[in-house]
Amino acid sequence: MPKVSVVIPTYNRANCIGRAIQSARRQTHKEIEIIVVDDGSTDNTEEIIKLIPDQRIRYIRCETNSGSGAARNEGLKVAQGNYIAFLDSDDEWLPEKLARQVERMDAEPPEVGVCFCGARIFKNEDMDNYIPYAPNKAWEHNTFRKFVMGRIKFLTPTVLFRWTCLAKTGLMVPEMRRNQDGEFLLRLFSHFDLAVIPEPYAVVHLVVSATNKHYDALNVALPYWLYHNASIQSKLGHWPALYNRCLLRTNLLSAAIREAKWRGVCRDFWRRLCECPVLFPGEIKVILKASVARLQRSE
Questions:
Q1: Which of 45, 59, 151, 210 could anchor a disulfide with 41, C-beta 3.0 to 4.6 Å?
Q2: Which domains does the chain possess?
Q3: Are the beta carbons of 221 and 176 closer than 8 angstroms?
């Protein structure tokens, strides 16, 4: 039986799926299974995967494209490992990634259900420069509160969690096309603690484009986030719950600004003010950043 199930959702990533799979195969921790869920690809993704000679690879084909959350769910349903690790099909791991995380989690009590490691982020395949991502050791304390307040940043390929956590959290919400991994982590942190390894063991390849459109998907995702607000209030109190609602609406507003959806800007700004007539400093920063990005797109 494998100790770690690596779940890789993919859609039309024939150009890079091999790189992701090879990085999983090169892990120094060998007790793994690699579950590749093809989310209805129309390119030669399947052909590339099936040419890789490794019995640890399990290929699942979905006939219709339903999004990465739904694809990850298909992997989670068949996963047999004690731990689950997500790897996006355009990203990769350094060889020691799983070994370090498994070693850390094996030494922790069951209450610690999730482990983050550090990463290096490369934008638009500029391999000469990277943005460091180093999870803070302080996140190991009051994790749920800090996540609710937007103080914890995460990268999906750095996440490893116990398979037993799924009994309390359930699977991802398949209807969410954006931020489904964040909503899943919110449920994880409402029950389990976090362990942090700051060293970078993941490589994230980020494509930033002026044509990226996320507003509509975020709008669909918002009710699923707001659904948790009553639970947040019961566990953390009124002010964290209020701040969480405000931050969620501000993030949607910022997407509307970036994509010049001006009706959405007016509507979302009004709905945000209905939550609280005062903008918090963190929200102002988010709005200013979105406004600058919009101006740069217009140039």
A1: 45
A2: 4-206 (3.90.550.10), 215-298 (no CATH)
A3: yes
